[in-house]
Amino acid sequence: MHKPVPQPTAHTRPFWEACNQQKLQFQACKRCHTVQLIPRTVCTQCHAPDLEWKESAGKGVVLSHTTVYRAPTPAFKADVPYVIALIDMDEGFRLMTNVRGAPPSAVAIGQRVRIGFEARGETLLPVAHLEPQ
Ligand SMILES: [Zn+2]
């Protein structure tokens, strides 16, 4: 069994194409300047369809995190325990991703992270790495 891979749609394809170039993008509303991720066809605040893609600097802070000890499928068995975190990115959008390169006990709310990318099949997925304290 393999891990699931992204299945890009018309409105998520730009996000995944950017990931494959190791760039994290988010959407910004041209009308009310709300920023958002996951990709949508309209602004979550004013519902305008006038969205543009912007590139994130890839830095943020841990808002919340949890550690997975029981693999959801056999494909994740070698990964446990692993950390899933909500990251508040400096540009104002929120990203849910894995924290890599650190034991679960090292992850804490408020820690600075930077986004990197790791391969999953033919796609690169954004993951968070803890910044040195
Ligand atoms: Zn808007």
Distinct small molecules bound, one entry per kind:
zinc ion
Structural class computed from helices and strand pairing: mainly beta
Shape: globular
State the domain count. 1
Topology pattern, helix = H, strand = E = HEEEEEEEE
| CA-based gyration radius | 15 Å
Q: Strand order within the widest sheet?
A: 4-5-6-8-7
Average predicted local confidence, pLDDT: 96
**Distance from first to last alpha carbon:** 38 Å
> Sheet bearing the most strands, described?
5 strands, mixed, barrel
The total of helices stands at: 1
Beta strand %: 35-45%
Q: What's the count of strands?
A: 8
Uncertain parts: none
Percent helix:
under 10%
Question: Can you walk through the features of this model?
Answer:
This protein is mainly β and 133 residues long. The chain has one domain (13-130). It contains 1 helix and 8 strands; from the N terminus they run αββββββββ. The strands form 2 sheets. It has a 5-stranded mixed beta barrel. It is globular and about 45 Å long. The chain starts with 12 loop residues before the first helix and ends with a strand. Bound molecules: zinc ion. Zinc ion (ZN) binds next to loops.
